[in-house]
Amino acid sequence: SERVCEEFYRQGDLERTFELEISPLCNQQKDTIPSIQIGFMTYIVEPLFEEWARFTGDSPLSENMLCHLRKNKAKWRGLLLKQHSKSNEHSGQMTEKEETLSQTLKEEDSP
């Protein structure tokens, strides 16, 4: 995760140097490793795994893959929430984004 994000960030830094528009996921001032990972899982991995599950008829393997994906995604969301909490400690309040993320985590953790 860190290595691919370092590569993305280097690309963004070069784009900034040449005054180009910074590509998605390449702006280290805006894009954190947890947010990049969550986006990758949401838009690339999850649809692939769901299609695999449909193709295999919800086999034990596909169920296991989706279960681990959900757990992995929840851990990254927890890290993202911690990052947002640390960056906003001075205000003493949760931002709207943090509240939404916190609610999503609670919903995913409940059976």
Fold and architecture overview:
- This protein has 111 residues and is an all-alpha fold.
- The protein has 4 helices and no strands.
- The longest helix has 28 residues, at 60-87.
Q: Which structural class do the helices and strands define?
A: mainly alpha
Rounded mean pLDDT score: 86
| Strand count | 0
Radius of gyration: 17 Å
Strand content: under 5%
| Contiguous runs where pLDDT drops below 50 for at least 5 residues | none
| Straight-line N-to-C gap | 29 Å
- Number of helical elements: 4
Largest sheet: none
* Pattern of helices and strands: HHHH
Helix content: over 70%
- What does the overall shape look like? flat
Can I get a quick summary?
By secondary structure, this protein is an all-alpha fold.
Question: How is the secondary structure organized here?
Answer:
Layout: H1 2-17, H2 33-56, H3 60-87, H4 96-109
Helix pairs in contact: 2-3, 3-4
Key attributes of the depicted protein:
4 helices; 111 residues; mainly alpha; flat
